[in-house]
Amino acid sequence: MQQLYDRYDAKQFANRTPDIGSFDHPRFVQICRLVGESEKILDVGSGFGEFSRKLAKRGKKVVAWDISNRTIEMCKSAGIEAYQINIETDPFIDCGTFDVILMLEIFEHLIDPLVALAKLKDLLNPRGLLVLSTPNAAYIKWRLQLLFGGLPDFGEDRILSDRPYNLLHKTPVTYDALRQVLATAGFEITSVEAEDYGVSVGWSKPGLRHIREWLRKNWLSLFAGSFVVSARPLQSTEHRLV
Fold first, then answer.
1. Do the beta carbons of residue 117 and residue 144 sit within 8 Å?
2. Region of residue 124 (left: phi > 0; alpha: psi -120 to 50; beta: else)
3. Residue 164, burial from CB neighbour count under 10 angstroms (0-12, 13-18, 19+)
């Protein structure tokens, strides 16, 4: 897995160091709202550090973990405390505990997310929060692709992996399955919403935008391309398997 992601990122970032983008991008605004006033943040699967760098510029203390050596080098070069780690197989580095753990588009990359989540729970402060985003395998676009005999990519960029199947996204999940995994790992969901990447040109007209938001709010499991979930760790007396 380590070699796979190193090759992927060497190709992805071969000719450039990506810009961290706008601070008013809808996705960053959404994550900042969920992070709130929390000060110490662990960015699990940080990639090249888009969110780590933005949050650090907002005065947060950020630690970045990623499986890829290339992306960790990019985080360090931007002044972020960063460590190369495979959260499924490597022992965790002692960085203390955190107010927030970010796992943005990471769940679907894991072979067994339940094990990783149960380990990460111990790194949260008693009142800490997990903020997790992951593609919705029941999204209407992918349902229709299956209906007509296609193989959905479930959000994976297959061009970079050179495969006709999902190589990096190993664990597609619906909201109900995600809820059960989090409960089993010892978390209680405190909020769930559609991930806000912004509005495409096709939905940009005011009337259509309103319809889009209404659909995403009322039929989240059908019209959300990705979920954003915040969850708190249950205390030992609250923890139960489902």
1. no
2. beta
3. exposed
CATH number of 2-233: 3.40.50.150
CA dist 47 and 15 (Å) reads 16
Give per-residue pLDDT as tens, 49-70.
999 999 999 999 999 999 999 9
195: which 2 tokens? Answer: 């991930």
Q: What's the CA gap between 4 and 25, in Å, rounded? A: 30
Q: In what order do the strands lie in the sheet with 61-66?
A: 81-84, 61-66, 40-44, 98-104, 124-135, 226-233, 187-194
Strand partners, 129: 100
Question: H-helix or E-strand containing 21?
Answer: none
State the pTM of this model: 0.91
* Nearest CA-CA partner of 135 in 127, 143, 124: 143
Beta strands in 113-173 (DSSP E): 124-135
Question: 187-194 and 226-233 as β-strands: parallel, antiparallel, unpaired?
Answer: antiparallel
Q: Which DSSP letter does residue 133 get? A: E
Specify the amino acid at residue 206.
Answer: P
d(CA 213, CA 199): 10
Q: At 242, is the pLDDT very low, low, confident or very high (cuts 50, 70, 90)?
A: very low
Please name which of 191, 195, 187 lies closest in space to residue 238, comparing C-alpha atoms: 187
Looking at residue 119, what is its pLDDT?
A: 95
